[in-house]
Design a protein that fits this description.
By secondary structure, the protein is of the alpha/beta class. The protein has three domains: 44 residues, no CATH class; 126 residues, Rossmann fold, CATH 3.40.50.2300; 132 residues, Response regulator (Rossmann fold). The strands form three sheets. A six-stranded parallel beta sheet has the order 2-1-3-4-5-11, with helices on both faces. It has a four-stranded parallel beta sheet with strand order 7-6-8-9, with helices on both faces. Strands 10-12 form a two-stranded antiparallel sheet. The radius of gyration is 25 Å and the shape is elongated.
């Protein structure tokens, strides 16, 4: 004889409300983390929901209502990026503490890919979006305006954001490093960067760096812009390429720390002394830079602060609270032993 399994029906919200001694509407507001109830009520509802094994049906809520969900869409250039990985960690942590979940996408520096992702994510009726950079297609801007979803643009500082901007002043940090390199007596200075598919988020740092040189009446001696992703290997062979063209360079500024570390490895492999034969500077305070035999000259940025600030600002906007349209996350030049 085959034993029958006792199938227990899914617990619904009405049962949770009854167990907690509140109305279904109040229980719903608690589960959606919407204001309008006391802390005591919140604890009772969550306690009973946990005891009964209640799990909200987020998909049904999204498709059965025009109300926003607890989903926040987060788009970055690459999931493999160390810098954006840290941003995602801090963003996800901050949003989770506020009762929201993330749906993550990677646009690979393509505004068209980002547009497709945004169209898809909007079908889930997200509570808000966090987008890396401020280069979007015209269709994307019109789409976001039509839906009226709160948007936080991060990484690049945007003085005319779609909604709000939380970012670093990349131009100023690049300019600051350019002036610092000049102050150390370097004059034949090169630049190595990588822009896969489309101009990426390091473009403004390069412009700031070139501005510093131009202000001193100096041209960038040579540039190597690779059609590749920034990384150790790109920095290694980018340095090989630029030095093959100009062996007289006395310093190189790199798009980020990973590329600068790759540059250091190449120079050391060629028997060159850093900074005796050539100076090297990066950007981003990458963790690996802290364990080099020589401390890398770089610009320290707090990706954790950026992600947390963006998440909290977006949720404040969703809740109707006053939020600054533009928030600058500070950067700091840290002199090392490579310049």
């Amino acid at each position: 004889m085959t034993a029958k399994h006792d199938k227990r029906s899914n617990v619904n919200l009405a049962e949770v409300a009854e167990a907690a001694g509140v109305s279904k509407m109040t229980a719903s507001r608690v589960m959606r983390n919407v204001s309008g109830f006391s802390e005591d009520t919140r604890e009772k509802v969550l306690r009973e929901a946990s005891r009964l094994g209640y799990v909200p049906n987020r998909i049904a809520a999204a498709f059965g209502s025009e109300q926003t969900s607890s989903i926040i869409g987060v788009s970055v250039p690459y999931l493999s990026s160390n810098l954006f990985g840290a941003v995602l960690d801090s963003t996800n942590d901050a949003l989770a503490k506020l009762g929201y979940q993330t749906m993550i996408g990677a646009h690979e520096n393509s505004a068209q890919t980002e547009e497709v992702w945004i169209r898809n994510i909007l079908s889930w009726r997200p509570a808000g979006l966090i987008l890396s950079g401020h280069t979007h297609t015209k269709n994307t801007r019109e789409l976001l305006k039509a839906h009226g979803v709160p948007v936080a643009e991060i990484w690049n500082l945007n003085t005319s954001p779609i909604d709000m901007s939380v970012g670093f002043n990349h131009f100023d940090s690049g300019q600051e490093m350019g002036l610092y390199i000049l102050s150390k007596g370097y004059r034949r200075i090169g630049y190595v960067g990588a822009e896969a598919a489309a101009p990426g988020l390091g473009t403004l740092r390069r412009k700031g760096f070139l501005s510093a040189l131009a202000g001193a009446g100096i041209q960038c001696a040579s540039e190597e812009i690779l059609n590749d992703r920034a990384g150790f290997y790109a920095g290694f062979y980018g340095t090989e390429n630029i030095l093959a063209r100009d062996q007289n360079l006395d310093a190189i500024y790199y798009q980020d720390d990973a590329m600068a570390i790759g540059g250091i490895f190449y120079c050391q492999a060629q028997g060159m002394n850093v900074p005796g034969d050539i100076g090297i500077a990066g950007w981003g305070s990458m963790e690996a830079a802290s364990i080099l035999p020589q401390r890398l000259t770089t610009t320290v940025v707090s990706t954790q602060a950026l992600g947390k600030t963006a998440a909290e600002a977006l949720i404040a906007r969703i809740r109707g609270e006053a939020v600054e349209d533009v928030t600058i996350t500070p950067t700091r030049l840290v002199p090392g032993n490579t310049i």
